[in-house]
Design a protein that fits this description.
- The structure holds two protein chains of two kinds.
- By secondary structure, chain A is α+β, with helices and mostly antiparallel strands.
- Chain A is 35% helix and 23% strand.
- Chain A contains 20 helices and 21 strands.
- In chain A, the strands form four sheets. In chain A, strands 3, 4, 5, 6, 7, 8 and 9 form a seven-stranded mixed sheet that branches.
- In chain A, a hairpin with a 2-residue loop joins strand 5 and strand 6.
- Chain A is globular and about 80 Å long.
- Chain B is of the alpha/beta class.
- In chain B, the strands form three sheets. Chain B has a seven-stranded mixed sheet with strand order 4-5-6-7-8-15-16, covered by helices on one side.
- In chain B, strand 2, helix 1 and strand 3 form a beta-alpha-beta unit.
- The radius of gyration of chain B is 20 Å and the shape is globular.
- Classes of the chains: A alpha+beta, B alpha/beta.
- Chains A and B meet through helix 1, helix 2, helix 5 and helix 6 of A and helix 2, helix 5 and helix 7 of B.
Chain lengths: 536, 306
């Protein structure tokens, strides 16, 4: 448990992706089975040990520590599990330190009534970091800033395999993943994936660079369709086994029973998961209401009914179509979809064009209705087979130009690692008018990329020279009607948000340009963003 | 003050401008290094164990184990003994003499870490987590924020004990104090400046700097630095996050909760006066343990160090 606890501790304090990959892959290399397998289950979110409620923690700690001293300590530390971990007075001559496998095993065989005594004994045997990790695991409050995808990437790095190879078999594996690690250690073949309903690694597109790419490409070689703004999914019904996978092979079925029920076919469809209503598709923000949930409610499925818009057909009955050309797969897809309920599963229509200019015009001014909500366009070579990963050439995505808004820099925060010593995270705001007509800035987002190294130095110097207040690592900079730095912020979309004072949240905001020339009072107003939100 | 007895050289305890300053030779040297020759109009050197008497009051300095030259003042008057412990710790520290318990009627204790959540782990484990991170990230510079008097030298000495023999790079602000420690016989091994080197030369190296230098433009010379910070406050994650520290090292020159309470049990004075930190929580412990106590409010300065 100690090694795992220290891993969680380091992960929770490391900002860099590379550092996290190193930490996890080193851990997998150095830790024996089954400990690393259970740890991997925790890191990928496949194992939850909700064995303790906060009330139990309080009860345990107050049996050992004066309630007043505990209350003062909790006030100071601000987190229950952490306070208990730090304050816990171990009984002398405590037990052997448990490993994670032992915790998992023992809890799965224990009754609810036995749990408190077990937890107490483990707390006695662990050090403060071990206690913190254990209590976070048991109360389900572990947040270390590592996605399941990144955990799998680290396992792939450790085994020297492509992450797609792990994703392809992921659905068929179960903790503690003995067969996976045998393979990653190089001691066995890759576990078999010949199970019905399995995930097939997804084919992805390269970003298109119109200036460089179009002169080399012949429009006649390519089909075009809208790039819908939802979540890419693989919808499976293989001999009655129904699955809905994300593009990384996560099983999303439990949160989308309505979609599973609509998979009235035998085959595998590649498509986009969208909120579907009679009048057209919903926004990404609406779909988000249903994402990242372990289950769903009838209210959610009624308010945000979901469906699939099909791009491709990978399996038809028993026949694997992935080796066929896109043109042939497309024909088969069209007749396949024809037999299904269009309210739940429909076809992503191809767009006719003869020159790249035609296509550019279509992308710039999509017709009203669903296409106006698309994220851009997809180009697919008519003769492309379905290849996992992101091959260069057969498929391109040509995203819609980002939305832009001129905002004023309000706060800056110091970066870490390579950006150590620079104020590199910027919070920006737009003007809002109160009832009395007075204008003030309200924060609408935060961005930490989009600028060059040279621009970073200029921004950093601006922050240092115009700081008006400091809060720990954050500086407030001067930003008012007469003075302030205007940043052109590019973003992919807007959503309503209760977490932000402005009521809005941006998708993928980044700094487009620094408008040294623009007076702060001419930056955009909140009303401009409200209009974008209303229109989109 | 006309006459000042100084327990140790941290700036919240030792200020310039007094008349006569009495302190250990190390503390006087530290004050001179920090404030210059004119830091006091007169000085009186008191070695550990030696005494000075005036108006029937006898004062003896004994080691406090806090930093180099740190002392407790043992005050005796008409058979009554009062110990002003200053800042202290009970753990072994290769850079200073260990705390010496003195039986007394009144014990004045600090309470910087006077909450039961502060229980410093063994420093060997903290140094090992630094060294294992250096092995794990050989392409990055590990920069350890450490207060310039005491903590920096202790971290260096602990690294030497753990077998780190390479030159340790130090921020210029630490040079004077490092030299002073070496002059008093504390071995720090080979030290090198952190400036004037290409980034690549600092990859895989350990740099010691004052905490205020972390994440400042000074740190831009380092190779993708891992910010570490050696301080007792690093036990609490909110403090770690607030400072943006990636590798917290819980190494403190103050007594933690267990050391504070063990010291009170060991000395069992007739009365404890608690100052300098969380008086109320340590007082609560005294109440529960039946140890008479009172809070002592001192005129003083903000704490410089942990």
């Amino acid at each position: 448990m100690r090694a795992f606890a220290h891993l969680l501790d380091r992960l929770s304090l490391s900002a860099s992706r590379n550092a996290k990959l190193t930490l996890v892959s080193d851990f997998l290399r150095q830790t024996p089975d089954p400990e690393r397998g259970w740890a991997f289950a925790v890191l990928t979110g496949s194992l939850a040990l909700d064995a303790a409620k906060p009330a139990l923690l309080r009860r345990l700690v107050e049996s050992r520590v004066d309630a007043i001293l505990f209350a003062w300590s909790y006030d100071y530390v601000g987190d229950l599990a952490e306070t208990v971990a730090l304050i816990w007075p171990a009984k002398p001559g405590a037990n052997r330190e448990p490993d994670l496998s032992e915790v998992v095993d023992t809890l799965s065989g224990a009754s609810k009534a036995e749990a408190p005594a077990l937890i107490e004994a483990w707390l006695d045997a662990l050090d403060a970091i071990g206690r913190w990790a254990l209590l976070k695991l048991l109360t389900g409050g572990l947040r270390v800033g590592l996605s399941a995808r990144l955990a799998k990437q680290a396992a792939a790095d450790f085994g020297g395999v492509a992450v797609g190879e792990i994703e392809e078999i992921w659905h068929a594996l179960a903790p503690p993943y003995g067969d996976l690690f045998l393979w990653l250690d190089g001691r066995a073949e890759r576990p078999s994936v010949e199970t019905p309903g399995r995930f097939r690694p997804v084919m992805l597109a390269q970003a298109l660079d119109p200036k460089d790419d179009f002169p080399k490409l012949d429009p006649a070689d390519y089909a075009a369709e809208w790039k819908w703004d939802g979540v890419r999914v693989q919808a499976v019904n293989e001999g009655g086994v129904r699955r809905l996978y994300s593009r990384t092979g996560e099983d999303m079925g439990a949160a989308f029973p309505d979609v599973l029920a609509a998979l009235e076919f035998d085959g595998v469809i590649d498509g986009e998961l969208l909120v579907r209503r009679g009048e057209g598709i919903g926004s990404f923000g609406e779909l988000q209401q249903r994402l990242n949930r372990k289950s769903t409610s009838s209210r959610l499925t009624t308010d945000f009914p979901a469906g699939v818009r099909a791009y491709d057909l990978l399996l038809e009955g028993q026949t694997d179509l992935r080796g066929l050309r896109f043109a042939e797969r497309r024909l088969r897809l069209e007749s396949f979809i024809d037999r299904l309920d269009p309210a739940a599963i429909d076809l992503s229509p191809l767009q006719a064009f003869s020159t790249w200019d035609d296509l550019a015009a279509l992308r710039a001014a999509p017709p009203a209705g669903d296409p106006a909500k698309a994220e851009g366009m997809m180009l697919k070579r008519w003769d492309s087979t379905y290849q996992p990963g992101r091959p260069k050439g057969p498929w391109f995505k040509w995203k819609r130009d980002p939305m832009r808004v001129d905002a004023v820099l309000m706060y800056a925060q110091r970066g870490h690692g390579k950006r150590s010593g620079y104020y590199s995270d910027y919070t920006f705001g737009v003007w809002r008018e109160d009832a009395a007509g007075a204008r003030s800035l309200t924060p609408v987002g935060k961005a930490y990329f989009g600028f060059t190294d040279e621009e970073l130095k200029q921004l950093d110097a601006f922050v240092r020279n115009h700081t008006i207040e400091r809060f720990g690592p954050v500086r407030a900079v001067r930003a008012d009607e007469d003075f302030g730095l205007v940043l052109e912020v590019a973003f992919e979309g807007l959503q309503r948000s209760t977490r932000h004072k402005s009521g809005l949240a941006m998708r993928f905001p980044r700094i487009g340009r620094i408008r040294w020339d623009k007076p702060s009072r001419e930056a955009d107003e909140l009303a401009t963003l409200e209009r974008i939100l209303g229109g989109g | 003050m006309e006459r000042a007895l100084i327990t140790h050289g941290h700036s919240d305890h030792a200020r310039p401008g007094h008349g006569l300053v009495m302190a250990t030779p190390q503390t006087l040297a530290i004050m001179q290094a920090r404030y210059g020759d004119g830091f006091a109009s007169q000085t009186l050197t008191l070695n550990y164990g030696s005494s000075i008497a005036r108006d029937g009051v006898e004062i003896t300095l004994v080691p406090a184990g806090h930093v180099l030259g740190s002392a407790q003042a043992v005050v005796r008057w008409r058979g009554l003994t009062m110990v002003v412990s200053g800042d202290y710790k009970r753990r072994r520290d290769p850079t200073c003499a260990p705390f010496e318990p003195v039986a007394c009627e009144v014990f004045i204790t600090e309470a910087t870490f006077g909450l039961p959540v502060f229980r410093h782990p063994p420093d060997t484990g903290e140094i090992e987590s630094l060294l294992s991170s250096v092995r794990q990230f050989p392409e990055r510079t590990h920069v350890v924020g450490a207060y310039s008097l005491g903590k920096a030298q202790r971290v260096i000495a602990l690294l030497r004990e753990a077998g780190w023999e390479a030159p340790i790079h130090v921020h210029g602000a630490l040079d004077r104090m490092n030299a002073l420690y070496v002059g008093f016989g504390v071995e720090l091994g080979p030290l090198a400046p952190a400036t004037g080197l290409p980034k690549a030369a600092l990859a895989g190296q350990i740099v010691i700097a004052p905490p205020s230098a972390l994440s400042t433009p000074w740190a831009r010379r380092l190779a993708d630095p891992v910010d570490a910070f050696a301080s007792g406050w690093m036990a609490v994650r909110a403090r770690v996050r607030q400072r943006g520290v990636e590798l917290p090292l819980v190494i403190s020159d103050h007594a933690d909760w267990d050391e504070l309470t063990a010291t009170l049990i060991e000395l069992a004075p007739s009365e404890v006066w608690i100052t300098h930190g969380r008086e109320e929580a340590l007082g609560r412990w005294c109440d529960l343990a039946g140890q008479p106590w009172k809070a002592l409010t001192l005129a003083g300065f903000e704490d410089e160090a942990d």
